[in-house]
Amino acid sequence: MVESDLKLALRKYFGFDAFKGKQENIIQNVLDGKNTFVIMPTGGGKSLCYQLPALLSNGTAVVVSPLIALMKNQVDAIRNVSDNEAIAHFLNSSLTKTEISRVKEEIQSGSTKLLFVAPESLTKQENIDFLTSVDISFFAIDEAHCISEWGHDFRPEYRRLREIFEKISNVPIIALTATATPKVQYDIQKNLNMLDAVVFKSSFNRDNLYYEMRSKRDVEKEIIKYIRTKEGKSGIIYCLSRKKVEEIAELLQVNGINALAYHAGLDATTRAKHQDMFLMEEVDVIVATIAFGMGIDKPDVRYVIHHDIPKSIESYYQETGRAGRDGGEGECVAFYSYKDIEKLEKFLQGKPVAEQEIGKQLLSEIVSYAETSVCRRKFILHYFGETFEEKNCNEFCDNCRHPREKKEGKEYVSMLLKVITDLQEMHKAKHYCAFLSGNVTSEIKSYKHNLLTGFGAGKEKDEHFWNAVIRQVIVAGLISKDIETYGTLKVTEKGEEFMKNPHSFLLIKEHDFSVSDDDDLILNSGGKGGVFDETLYDLLIDLRKSISKQKNIPPFVIFQEPSLKDMCLQYPVTIDELTNIQGVGQGKAARYGEPFIALIQNYVEENNIERPQDLVVKTLINKSVLKVKLIQNIDRKLPLEDIGKAQGKSFDEVIDEIEAIVSSGTRININYYLDEILDPENQDEIFDYFSEAETDDLVTAYNEFDGDYTEEEIRLMRIKFMSDMAN
Q: All domains of the chain, ordered by start, with CATH?
């Protein structure tokens, strides 16, 4: 078909005067009867690539689509461009026998140009027999990443598509996806036996999207604060569990935000109703699991928030891609903590080994993304096999807008490359980090790598530092991850060149989420308030040090670092305001607060600081009631495990609660429990350690005792120490 004819058809059916990007070439390739593979980001116009050739071809195009809701939307969209209702149909489990018969009749009559089917429907013999008897123009596979085990939404039934297609008809295939790494791309093509396909890959850069990562601290409060700055604008909040979706939706409603829940546990009618209300702008915010959004074409979603970090970068990219599809504003804010990753790792347990390895590899990539301090856009595009100069980000990610300190790292990069080479490029990042920092892990021992001369060559730096070096060196292209071996590191040609001729390599200081409140991150995008104040932090540290010397107690007993960091964001200037600071209760505020609020008050006046507006968030449950109950149960000397069971909490969560109560200034006596698990001399040994320690960090304490005590035992003794000394 000549170019002018295609443009006329585009105008006739869809009302557009011009094609976007590579659409025209893709459509021509399909019309020429060639296998076609389309990798195009969300909002790039994938659907048109099979819709228009289907309308222009003889016979019916069979489109495999993963979701019933998605099929309905697409059928409605096609019917809108034609006066013939029969032009598009879907075939799935939602239809009655009468409806199925009507669909088949209209296909046989030649009226239907597009038939949307679920992969499960295709496997039914009666449907295979029927499709064999009619004229098929081509097969289209939407959301083709579902074929690959390395894709973010793998569905086993997709793996059977090729054999079913061969039974039906020998016609061309067009596979389309919005997210495909080189590995996923190869996997899809190989499985569909279409390695000969013409590949059309569009840039994955969405230059109107702003990417930001925040520490998961006071996440509900932060979300409410954020949404209130976006009044009247549409947004999506993604959570991992249905329970969390319900909780957040309810919390938003209580706080006057027009929000609804969406997840697979709701009945089909409710889901469709909530989706329609969002599309029709009767509701501003949808709180959803990943079940929501596939194929949702709402162009003016202005922000996408991830309450929980997704399982992979593909998922993240696809979900954030629902923002700003009209080219306008689109902000993507994700909250992250190590605990989220631990939860996701637990989900992998019990699955086949290969699936676990793939899952872990995908998780390690999203962790790298969350913690990196290089341009987030550059990181994402590198993951999808695309080169990008970070200067072109135009400060459209938090790392470019608020760049972190850079230091010369040539020596460290050289050391890393040498170690990877010396250990024969056989290991994953974690192994090299342990080797360089001199940490004798079970894996290091099994390979006897602790006996090598280079072991601990970089021990002046910790594993977190070496992880950061690896991430930045990967993005720079000096090393690569071998996907086939689940992430072993290989030195590239560029890396070999660096080893021969080392040159300047600036390393960026990375975010540290080991404490789940890295307030170096920006809490809001404008104004003076809400940005972590390093100058004030240094002053507060000095004040704490002088009080600790005066009172002869460790500094962390007075206020812990997360509390000081929160003061550098909130600027409390009264005792009442100080009690709203994380980890500060009335007792602690009254005991130690006066000199701190005096310093902050003076600092605010001298520097004309605009303090953030107080945000009052209505909660759904009265947490103070639960706190009182916990204290009462401890006073009754109930075992902590039993207290947890009664409140539906794990043992770790109970300890978390007790730590929060003690750090806010309330004295709690858990001696009865400690006496059951530790001898008096062991208790004295740990207590004495904290009396002399410079930090209350658990990892440091655990390493100090060389594994003689469990993490739980040390945590419980730290609670006793803080309760006795600070309260």
A: 3-201 (3.40.50.300), 209-401 (3.40.50.300), 406-508 (1.10.10.10), 534-606 (1.10.150.80), 623-726 (1.10.10.1390)
